[in-house]
Amino acid sequence: MKVQQLSAHPAITPLCALIVLLVLGGCVSRGVSDGPGARLDADAIADAVPRPEPVTRAGNFSPYTVFGQTYHLMESAEGYRSRGIASWYGSKFHGRLTSNGEVYDMYQMTAAHKTLPIPSYVRVTNLDNGRSAIVRVNDRGPFHADREIDLSWAAATKLDFHQRGTAQVEIVVIDPVAWQLAQQGEAASSPQSAQLPQLLEGEYLQVGAFEQPDLAHLQLLELIDKIPYAIQVLPDNGRYKVLVGPLVSPEQLQMARQQLAQLSIAAFKYTQLASCEVSNPVAKC
């Protein structure tokens, strides 16, 4: 399919129209001439891993117009679920820029969608065979009236429709925070994870203590992109402490305390002694 028309909304300036052309250039011209990639073992392909990410400016122009059709982006992906036809794009676009400025890699678990915020994470299920995959939406398309989502070659292979070109699918948006908490809960309940984590000797800053592990992990996720230090959750006598560190010097500890204060987070010094075994429930640290 060759691009016939790409125009910005009438209220968009010519410069913005050029920007829209650039960010959509990697996804509007897919067609039957698009080629497959190398053979992959569908069972060995790992899902995309959902993680909290800010919505990018690039790739989120709204409204935009392609082939005379105007699209308005969703303000939020929360609760989105739909069924429709999925297609895939491969070697013809491998190495080109996606709508948000990333380089398209046909061997990564990514997807294009016309109106979901970029980035979003969705679970796509092939309704013909029950296979499912988690992909990260980082592109726009497919610009066919009868198609709902465009998947990478790897994702199409994992869903086992790469030979046919299209498939009937169900698409469900994933909340990255809820997904990560669910994964941590499963890990905590597995026999291999029954032993409590070991804490390295040193100085820490305690920024929270919760009775529920989910709340502790939620604070960890909120902080992880805001401060340049390790963060961990320590089970301790029925509570779950959120610790920043270890901090290797008094200067680093003071700097971390100041950075946390700028985020309006109170912090208390926590010392892990060399003789303190966290796995010992009677140890006092």
UniProtKB/TrEMBL annotation:
Topological relation to the membrane, as annotated: Lipid-anchor
Q: What is the protein name stated in its UniProt record?
A: Endolytic peptidoglycan transglycosylase RlpA
What's this chain's function?
A: Lytic transglycosylase with a strong preference for naked glycan strands that lack stem peptides.
Any one GO BP annotation for this protein? peptidoglycan metabolic process
Q: Which UniProt keywords apply?
A: Cell membrane, Cell wall biogenesis/degradation, Lipoprotein, Lyase, Membrane, Palmitate, Signal
GO cellular-component term (any): plasma membrane
Q: What family is it from?
A: Belongs to the RlpA family.
> What are the SPOR domain coordinates in residue numbering?
197-273
Q: What is its EC number?
A: 4.2.2.-
Q: What class of enzyme is it?
A: lyase
Task: Show the coiled coil region(s).
Answer: none
Molecular function, one GO term: peptidoglycan binding
Highest taxon of source:
Bacteria
Where does the UniProt annotation locate this protein? Cell membrane
Q: Which InterPro entries match?
A: RlpA (IPR034718), RlpA-like_DPBB (IPR009009), RlpA-like_sf (IPR036908), RplA (IPR012997), SPOR-like_dom (IPR007730), SPOR-like_sf (IPR036680)
